[in-house]
């Protein structure tokens, strides 16, 4: 498969992705409640500046401003008809910035969750999910995205539907899930479950992994979980810059650039190939991460204790991958006919 | 039980066994079985309110505890809540007829500027699962929207959700307005959302921060019980 990401992966043994989109856009004046994707057409200069800030800070890959650009999410802003257009423009702006970078930079077309819950409990059917993701994929493809980049997914059904849609669009892709509930995704998927799911897909992603979630420590535990499955597929680590804290009326993420540099190097030691940030990760974090990845040697995979010591404790004692990790309830068992 | 391949005939179980079986069936999200069991208990002369509290809410409490403890996850909890709803739909008209006490009611919505709704939806479903009446205001609610809904529905609880660090301070705007208008003490105010914590909840004047949907249900129950015990009405 020939695409910019696969080519870069052939020549380099680690790549740096970008940081936060939302946090950066809010700093640029986005009002909360507005769809960030509207800025692709309303303020293209600011979106170019966002992309360029990641490129200038050393990112090899950046994600387009299209996370919530699917019809299901845009419907909340009565803009469901603009899914394809807003995604296309997000990628076009990305293409401009990447092509002017003077080095190989990958434009990754971001695709976030629909926000809906699948049937039978929710309203989302597989067919509808495929259709929604396919529309966005075609828009990003038209705009010139090198790869599609699925992120912050919780439900395996949604990940699979997106994979199917990307096959329809004939696009290479990457896909990460968010492990934010006791080391699993909200829907209960463990790191080991995700590897099994990814490897069983008819059109598996170029790379897979984890993004967002709780803090840097939890994210690295998840990466260790992926690596423990012995997967050959490149692993993506895109963790938040610490945890948001509330101080005197405003909020900031407690992860310093130095901490994120430490996280980046440890992520690589844990087995990640593509390393970036998520919420709260600003250009100054990315710069320190890049510098650390370039200057510090690889080391052995850290233990959980070392991760906790250097990056802070975990949000839960277990993550569902151990032997007798998670307690099970003793039940009466048996069903009637 | 050892006879694992034998089917259980619900109508042949005695009351205690049947309630135990309902706990299991709720846990497994078996809606048809729950509906059948509710009907059996009604036929045996159980008061609708007793079925609600002892069998359904009792069973959902176990589901909530295991969700809180990371044993069950959202899909299982949604199925359980759906099974509970099946039982509730039978009981609801009967509860009204018999004038049974209500579990309580809640108005819930994501704050202005915030378009995230999954967490809020889960809380709504779990609260319904626990027998509460829930009015869902959806996303992006301005303070006026909350106040109108409080006026109209007179709930016990106001629930607010925010997933963004930029929108969570809006909860304080709502609470401050309630204080200004002298309404604050008429309601139990619960807040939740990924970036929040207990300290934040206290700082803005909420009654409690709820870490997840299971905690929200437990907190709601204990606050409503306290409110009822005090016998305090709106003054």
Please tell me about this protein's structure.
The complex is a heterodimer of chains A (337) and B (235). Chain A is α/β, with parallel strands linked by helices. Chain A has one domain (4-311): Alpha-Beta Barrel (TIM Barrel), CATH 3.20.20.330. Chain A contains 13 helices and 10 strands. An 8-stranded parallel beta sheet of chain A has the order 1-10-7-6-5-4-3-2. The termini of chain A are far apart. Chain B has 235 residues and is α/β, with parallel strands linked by helices. Chain B has 2 domains: 10-98, Methyltransferase, Methionine Synthase (B12-binding Domains), Chain A, domain 1, CATH 1.10.1240; 105-230, Rossmann fold (3-Layer(aba) Sandwich), CATH 3.40.50. Chain B is built from 9 helices and 5 strands. Chain B has helices at 15-27, 31-43, 48-68, 74-98, 118-129, 143-153, 170-180, 198-204, 213-230, and strands spanning 105-110, 133-136, 157-161, 188-192, 208-209. Chain B is elongated. Chain B starts with 14 loop residues before the first helix and ends in a 5-residue tail after the last helix. The mean pLDDT of chain B is 89. Chain A: It is an enzyme of class 2 (transferase). Chain A: This is Betaine--homocysteine S-methyltransferase.
Please state the overall shape of chain A, judged from the principal axes of the Cα atoms.
globular
Main β sheet profile of chain A? 8 strands, parallel
**Strand order in the sheet with the most strands of chain A:** 1-10-7-6-5-4-3-2
Number of helices of chain B: 9
Taking pLDDT < 50 over at least 5 consecutive residues as the criterion, the unreliable ranges of chain A are none
Read across the widest sheet of chain B, the strand sequence of neighbours is 2-1-3-4-5
> In DSSP terms, counting alpha (H) and pi (I) runs of 4 or more, how many helices of chain A?
13
Number of strands of chain A: 10
Query: Which structural class should the secondary elements of chain B be placed in?
Result: alpha/beta
Assigned CATH superfamily of the largest domain in chain B? Cobalamin-binding domain
Helix content of chain A: 40-55%
CATH class of the largest domain in chain B: Alpha Beta
Q: Determine the mean pLDDT of chain B.
A: 89
Tell me the number of structural domains of chain A.
1
Q: And the CATH topology of the largest domain in chain B?
A: Rossmann fold
């Amino acid at each position: 498969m020939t695409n910019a990401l696969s080519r870069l992966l052939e020549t380099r043994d680690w790549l740096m992705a970008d940081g936060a989109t939302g946090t950066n856009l809010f700093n640029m004046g986005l009002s909360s409640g507005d769809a960030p994707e509207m800025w692709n057409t309303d303020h293209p200069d600011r979106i170019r500046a966002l992309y360029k800030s990641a490129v200038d800070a050393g990112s090899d890959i950046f994600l387009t401003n299209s996370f919530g650009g699917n019809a299901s999410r845009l419907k909340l802003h009565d803009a469901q008809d603009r899914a394809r257009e807003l995604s296309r423009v997000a990628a076009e702006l990305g293409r401009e910035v990447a092509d002017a970078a003077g080095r190989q930079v990958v434009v990754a077309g971001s695709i976030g969750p629909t926000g809906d819950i699948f049937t039978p409990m929710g309203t989302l059917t597989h067919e509808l999910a495929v259709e929604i993701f396919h529309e966005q994929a075609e828009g990003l493809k038209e705009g010139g995205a090198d790869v599609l980049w699925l992120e912050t997914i919780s439900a395996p059904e949604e990940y699979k539907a997106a994979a199917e849609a990307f096959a329809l669009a004939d696009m290479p892709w990457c896909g990460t899930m968010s492990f934010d509930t006791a080391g699993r995704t909200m829907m209960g998927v463990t790191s080991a479950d995700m590897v099994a799911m990814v490897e069983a897909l008819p059109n598996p992603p170029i790379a897979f992994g984890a993004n967002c979630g709780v803090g840097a420590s939890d994210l690295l535990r998840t990466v260790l979980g992926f690596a423990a499955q012995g997967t050959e597929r490149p692993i993506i680590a895109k963790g938040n810059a610490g945890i948001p804290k509330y101080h005197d009326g405003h909020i900031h993420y407690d992860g310093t650039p130095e901490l994120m540099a430490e996280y980046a190097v440890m992520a690589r030691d844990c087995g990640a190939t593509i390393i970036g940030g998520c919420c709260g990760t600003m250009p100054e974090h990315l710069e320190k991460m890049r510098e650390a990845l370039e200057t510090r040697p690889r080391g052995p995979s850290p233990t959980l204790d070392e991760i906790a010591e250097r990056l802070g404790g975990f949000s839960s004692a277990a993550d569902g991958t151990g032997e007798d990790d998670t307690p099970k309830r003793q039940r009466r068992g048996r069903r009637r006919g | 039980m050892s006879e694992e391949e034998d089917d259980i005939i619900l109508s042949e179980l005695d009351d205690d066994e049947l309630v135990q079986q309902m706990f299991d069936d709720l846990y497994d999200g078996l809606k048809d079985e729950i509906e059948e069991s509710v009907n059996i208990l009604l036929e045996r002369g159980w008061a609708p309110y007793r079925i609600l509290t002892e069998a359904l809410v009792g069973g959902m409490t176990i589901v909530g505890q295991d969700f809180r403890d990371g044993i069950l996850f959202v899909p299982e909890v949604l199925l359980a809540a759906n099974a509970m709803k099946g039982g509730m739909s039978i009981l609801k008209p009967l509860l009204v007829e018999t004038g049974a006490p209500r579990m309580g009611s809640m108005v819930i919505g994501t704050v202005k500027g915030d378009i995230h709704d999954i967490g809020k939806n889960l809380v709504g479903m779990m609260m319904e699962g626990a027998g509460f009446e829930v009015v869902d205001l959806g996303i992006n609610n301005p303070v006026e929207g909350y106040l109108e809904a409080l006026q109209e529905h007179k709930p016990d609880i106001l629930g607010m959700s925010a997933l963004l660090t930029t929108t969570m301070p809006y909860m304080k705007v709502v609470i401050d307005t309630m204080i200004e208008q002298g309404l604050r003490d008429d309601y139990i105010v619960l807040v939740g959302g990924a970036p929040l914590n207990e300290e934040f909840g206290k700082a803005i004047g909420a009654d409690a921060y709820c870490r997840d949907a299971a905690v929200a249900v437990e907190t709601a129950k204990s606050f409503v019980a306290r409110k009822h015990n005090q016998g305090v009405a709106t003054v």
